[in-house]
Amino acid sequence: MIELGLTRIQTLLQKTPQTWKAIHVAGTNGKGSICAYLTAMLRANNISCGRFTSPHLIDRWDCISINDNPVLEAKFRHFENLVKTRNDQLQAGATEFELLAATAFEIFEAEQVEVGVIEVGLGGRLDATNVLKNKAVTVISKIGLDHQAMLGNTLEEIALQKAGIMRAGVPCVVDASNPQNVLDVFESHSKQTGASLIHASPESSEFARSFPSAFEPHQIQNLTAAYEAFKLAYPQYAQSADILMPAIVNMKWRGRLQTLDITPLVKQPREVLLDGAHNSQSAKVLADYVNKRYRVGHPPRPVTWVLAASDGKDFAEVSRHLIRPGDAVAVVEFGPVDGMPWVKAMKTDALLKTMHLEESSAQHNGHQDTLGSIKWAVETAAGGPLVIAGSLYLVSDVLRLLRDEETQSGQT
Prior knowledge:
alpha/beta, Mur-like_cat_sf, globular, EC 6.3.2.12, Folylpolyglutamate_synth_CS, nucleotide-binding, about 15% strand, 14 strands, 15 helices, Mur_ligase_C_dom_sf
């Protein structure tokens, strides 16, 4: 279950030092990418760093990395057991996410990293990661409507929860492309808190003007925010564009506009676009990308989709952005999420009903058969564009299927 609050994790970490400094990243969309860009910049300058993001993509421990490498399973389980034992002894009653965050902090301390790049799990003010003691800089990315039941029903209410990561004397970088009402919330809270506010805008960033033209607008925005945060944390390295740029260009962030070769799964040469877009804002970004890169020609080429969604998401808005007349759609239910039992997939019947597809549209109810749905989509697409999206948990299932298939093929 999700239960916000800091008391339980404070109990877990009361005797755990935090000798490393932290870059704390909140927001609705883009915060994971900002964490990845920051890690690339830090590693390009040989700064030892840990990264904690959520959710995991394939294995529970891959959400924790040291110097951009996922922590080894044995090390993860050692510190996880240490934290769980402490939780039992202190009767802290920590949630699964709080146990995971505490495990990450223990690993960072044991590895003696210089800096930890920490993504907020949910919200900010009452998120378990907000127990960070040594924040060097905070970052707030794009704000959108998501998790309204826990964070509020308006952008202003959600923004205030995200702004809760600000600290007195600690600079906060905010995505300047947010609506003015959101920026006003940040401005007001920064004054109350005593945190200086920096607006990250590509238009006013000399560094942003050096980004390759292949980058999408939202990527440039996230990169600008990451660079402003890096510049504040390590001003002595901020001007080294010749060092930073190759690291940024070569950075890989799975599940975000990722071109994936699924040949081993479908036994024929085939690539797909894999993206975890799961709310209206991220779906709009994905749709813009697909429309520009894949719907080429006159008339525009139709797209075949494999889609899933978490229960409770506004899938009507997601599908409204993505699907056009003539597209083909397969819907599936992703499997159980390790360590996150509260996450449930939306039923495929509900997905189909929500989308209001035209009767002439090719559609497939895959229920819980992700592989079968992908194979249907490959045949239906007949060489045309194929996109898998709607949930990072579906992304996880696809990556896991591919890894398992490659492992089995390697053993035969």
